[in-house]
């Protein structure tokens, strides 16, 4: 069974006081700081003195705790004499009551309490204002002694019992004093379901987050699945590319067969087609380009004509020409040179019937 150790924070003139709750009853009580059992699971709840915490009740936004605290801080700023930046504001809830309790305490005081508890080896699960250990009365006020101090609780009020203050707040109505049994029952209920815990915001209890190994394993399997699918997609793409390349190579081979000599085996289609093209067109710039350049030069030279053509496999062409004078021979050489060919006369041109005849050797530069 998990026990709860209730620690009443000491005032300047009061010692530590404590209660040990087991189940639904107060099992032990005492003064001074108690011995902490190392082998028994115990939750710790600290009780803040009533005179150190100011309590208010107000209707607050209920959408989120942050909105509620913001609205509560605005109310506390209007009701407090000190700067709101020096105050810690916490918001709670009492069952189905519309008005919500607001606790206001000095931030330095809150830090001092937590440091004092830490020095004694305690990190409390909650810090409760002393007046909220008393039940909320339907009407009037209740009074009880808690940790050596008197505490008064009203419908929407809670404060330390001081003669003049109590009479002023209650309007002279005497609070009803709770019996010991009723008080212990109220404490057990308040600790089990606190209506206002001051450990909020900057003073919230830090909890260690356990590693969710099941989630880690799921994420690991998911990552492995993603990597596997990615790898599978890559492999499929490579197979598709390889198949497409093989198909393209087959089509190239079939096309090459149509351009090669019948019966010739295809080993390197590009090289074999280039070689056949060279054989068909001849060396140099080929028969067609060389012949075209020669006839273009003859047409551009009036009075010249071609008698014979002889094309050698090395790309050289012998052209027998007839011209009217030697100047036309130079014109033919110049025009063929402009087309990228060297034209060299072979021997002397002979004069026959008033015209000059001879051979020109035409080859690429």
TrEMBL record:
| Keywords noted in UniProt | Membrane, Transmembrane, Transmembrane helix
Q: Which InterPro entries match?
A: ATPase_NBD, GspL_cyto_dom, T2SS_protein-GspL
Which positions, given as ranges, span the membrane?
219-239
Q: Which domain of life is it from?
A: Bacteria
Record keyword Transmembrane present? yes
Q: SUPFAM superfamilies in the record, alphabetically?
A: Actin-like ATPase domain
Residues forming the GspL cytoplasmic actin-ATPase-like domain are 47-146
Please name the NCBIfam families in this protein's record: typeII_sec_gspL
Q: What is this protein called?
A: GspL cytoplasmic actin-ATPase-like domain-containing protein
Organism of origin is Sphingomonas glacialis
């Amino acid at each position: 069974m998990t026990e709860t150790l209730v620690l009443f924070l000491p005032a300047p003139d009061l010692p530590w006081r404590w209660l040990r709750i087991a189940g639904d009853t107060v099992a032990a009580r005492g003064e001074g700081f108690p011995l902490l059992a190392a082998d028994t699971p115990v939750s710790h709840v600290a009780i803040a003195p009533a005179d150190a915490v100011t309590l208010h009740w107000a209707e607050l936004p209920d959408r989120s705790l942050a909105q509620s605290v913001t609205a509560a801080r605005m109310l506390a700023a209007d009701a407090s004499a000190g700067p709101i930046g020096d105050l810690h504001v916490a918001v709670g809830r009492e069952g189905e009551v519309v008005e919500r309790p607001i606790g206001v305490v000095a931030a330095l005081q809150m830090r001092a309490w937590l440091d004092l508890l830490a020095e004694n080896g305690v990190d409390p699960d909650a810090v409760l204002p002393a007046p909220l250990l008393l039940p909320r009365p339907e009407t009037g006020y209740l009074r009880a002694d808690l940790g050596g101090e008197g505490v008064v609780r009203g419908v929407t009020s809670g404060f330390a019992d001081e003669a003049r203050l109590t009479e002023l707040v209650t309007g002279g109505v005497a609070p009803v004093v709770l019996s010991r049994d009723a008080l212990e029952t109220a404490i057990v209920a308040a600790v089990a379901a606190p209506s206002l815990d001051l450990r909020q915001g900057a003073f919230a209890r830090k909890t260690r987050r356990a590693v969710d190994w099941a989630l880690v394993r799921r994420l690991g399997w998911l990552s492995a699945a993603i990597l596997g699918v990615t790898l599978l997609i890559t492999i499929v793409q490579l197979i598709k590319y390889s198949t497409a390349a093989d198909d393209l190579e087959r089509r190239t081979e079939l096309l090459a067969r149509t351009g090669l000599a019948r019966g010739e085996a295809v080993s390197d289609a590009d090289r074999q087609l280039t070689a056949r093209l060279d054989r068909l067109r001849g060396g140099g710039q080929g028969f067609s380009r060389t012949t075209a350049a020669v006839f273009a030069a003859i047409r551009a030279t009036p009075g010249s004509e071609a008698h014979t053509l002889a094309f050698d496999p090395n790309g050289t062409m012998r052209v027998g020409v007839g011209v009217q004078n030697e100047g036309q021979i130079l014109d033919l050489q110049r025009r063929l040179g402009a087309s990228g060919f060297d034209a060299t006369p072979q021997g002397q041109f002979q004069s026959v019937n008033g015209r000059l005849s001879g051979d020109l050797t035409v080859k690429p530069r």
